[in-house]
Design a protein that fits this description.
571 residues; alpha+beta; 5 domains; 16 helices; MscS_beta-dom_sf
Length: 571
């Protein structure tokens, strides 16, 4: 048993030795080794191949000191001094080329990167003393810091600072050799354009903040050109729309895409001019890029939604214009399903646009967005804000696919007889019998009960209730009611017509007359004629009854007679 334990321990130690050996070999191939635990936490190199020379020396002891002095040397255009902060081990560059790389790197930091000075430690070991105790890097020494990230050929290229130490030298913070090697490719993509390079040197000097004089002049001009392109687009579409028939489909499409196309013209012109002639500095780009991308995405989604509406209207209007016909269940189902599909596609387009905006604009690395998201606060806020909206969207889809209320159905909602005109994301638009529009929340049609008069059979039993005197002869009323049921053209089944006493109170009895109509619209008119006919019949019988004690049909107020002696006694 002890021999087995010894063998396992020996195998474990051998594995650890192999792992350490492989790591050491890999670092040796890179030209660097990791310092031992008793030494400063640095990359040890055989020779630090940085620039430098005459001029103001840089402070390379801490990351913040190195960046501050490098940027100061760049403002003074002292590229020989600035090159001292760069590790040229991966480049084959002479003194002149090194100074040119230093100038390019300064331009990248000044133009395309927003440096977070608060995140740069001012300690040689780069320990973050302000980090929360929940941060795994709190209180931990570092030998590499990522300053920023830029996109290059579909991949993210970091701008890193590395702490290196040559034999017999002090640990120094410099731009890592990989970062220096990527400077030419990054500068070609993010550096000044040919047009900008042709500007006079005085216009390329810094005015204030990070803006150069040419940026102060160019930015309003770019906005004016974008506004001019947007105005031309708006007027052009409006002129083309005015030449078409207002009732035509293309007229509606042009009207729907006029504003999105105008936004696209403005943002597209702005983006093309920026990418072709001018490349604005980092902080300005950080503000304009998300706004520009937001306008482009909003415009594209608006145009796509207009095209989707056009296809929906084209597909539905070719079916029929008489959705409210009693036997038109097929077209009502078709309209309702198409409406649900349109809402689903609309939601997918909006979510895709928001997702693309978040990914393409790299918002997770700006404005503290990542801090909020990591704490879960943003997720809670969005979930709470979207809870009701998402619930309404799911309810509208549920109504459409369950077909509890279809477009064209006759429903009885909140004491009103209406037709369903539209099923939206958050509401249903109902048209009442007197052409009013009732806006009802979709939740009311999923969580509350309502009457659908055309769900299965559009025919409807219409009833009239009359209050008649207790002495009325109901059998005498059945004959005129039967006459009405047999002769009225809208009563589809006279055998179902019924006359019944359904209630009574101290004043009168309640008599109900019922007959079936083929649909709610026809039934309403028949209902009114039936009430009129039966009231007239009751009035004729009441007038022919003479004085009491003959039967009476219309209710009368009771008269109370009191004996005179009783009145005197009471008095």
């Amino acid at each position: 048993m002890l021999d087995i334990i010894r063998l396992k321990i020996g195998a474990l130690l051998l594995t650890l030795i192999l792992v350490v050996g492989v790591a050491a070999q890999a670092q040796a191939q890179d030209g660097r080794t990791v310092a031992a635990s008793s030494e400063p936490y640095v990359y040890k190199v055989e020779q630090l191949q940085n620039g430098g020379g005459a001029g103001t020396p840089l402070e390379l002891d801490t990351p913040m000191g190195m960046i501050e002095t490098f940027m100061a040397a760049g403002q003074e255009e002292d590229w020989q001094a600035a090159s001292a902060a760069m590790d040229f081990a991966n480049t084959d560059a002479d003194s002149t080329a090194r100074q040119e790389l230093a100038a390019q790197l300064y331009d990248l930091l000044h133009r395309s990167i927003s440096i977070s000075w608060s995140d740069l430690p001012d300690r040689p070991d780069a320990v973050d003393t302000l980090a929360s105790d929940k941060n795994p890097m709190a209180g931990v020494a570092r030998r590499s810091i990522r300053l920023a990230t830029l996109d290059l050929d579909g991949r993210s290229v970091p701008i890193r600072l590395a702490r290196v130490q040559a034999p017999g030298g002090e640990p120094l913070w410099v731009f890592s050799r990989q970062t220096v090697a990527n400077v030419p490719a990054l500068y070609a993509l993010y550096g000044p354009t040919k047009f900008e390079k042709s500007l006079p040197p005085v216009l390329r000097k810094q005015a204030f903040w990070t803006l150069a004089w040419w940026e102060i002049i160019a930015l309003p001009l770019i906005l004016l050109l974008g506004a001019f392109a947007a105005a031309l687009t708006y007027r052009g579409i409006g002129h083309l729309r005015d030449r078409m028939d207002e009732d035509g489909k293309l007229h509606g499409v042009l009207q729907a895409i006029q504003i999105p196309a105008t936004l696209l013209a403005f943002a597209g012109t702005f983006a093309v001019i920026r990418s072709t002639f001018f490349r604005l500095s980092g902080p300005v780009s950080d503000l304009l890029n998300p706004l520009q991308l937001l306008l482009i995405i909003a415009a594209v989604i608006g145009i796509m939604l207009a095209a989707l509406d056009f296809l929906f209207d084209f597909a539905t209007t070719r079916r029929t214009d008489k959705l409210e016909a009693p036997d038109n269940n097929e077209d009502r189902d078709f309209y309702t399903k198409m409406s649900a599909i349109r809402r689903i596609l609309t939601a997918v387009l909006l979510l895709a646009g928001i997702g693309f905006l978040l990914v393409a604009s790299n918002m997770s690395n700006t404005l503290g967005f990542s801090i909020i998201a990591s704490a879960g606060v943003l997720g809670l806020v969005l979930a709470f804000a979207a809870r009701k909206v998402l619930g309404d969207i799911m309810a509208s889809v549920q109504i459409a696919f369950a077909r509890s209320a279809r477009i064209g159905d006759a429903v009885y909602y909140d004491g009103q007889w209406c037709y369903v005109e539209k099923i939206g994301f958050t509401h249903l638009r109902l048209r009442s019998w007197d052409e009013r529009r009732v806006i009802a929340p979709v939740s009311a049609f999923t969580s509350e009960s309502f009457e659908n008069w055309t769900k299965q059979d559009p025919s409807l039993m219409m009833h009239v209730e009359l209050e008649l005197d207790h002495r009325a002869d109901v059998d005498a009323l059945r004959e005129p009611f039967r006459e009405f049921a047999d002769n009225d053209e809208d009563v589809i089944d006279p055998e179902d017509a019924v006359c019944e006493v359904v209630g009574q109170n101290s004043r009168a009895m309640v008599v109900r007359f019922m007959a079936r109509a083929q649909d709610p619209k026809v039934g309403w008119k028949m209902h009114c004629r039936m009430r009129e006919h039966m009231l007239a019949a009751a009035a004729r019988l009441d007038a022919a009854s003479g004085n009491e004690p003959a039967p009476a049909y219309l209710p009368r107020e009771r008269e109370v007679r009191m004996d005179m002696s009783v009145e005197e006694e009471v008095g």
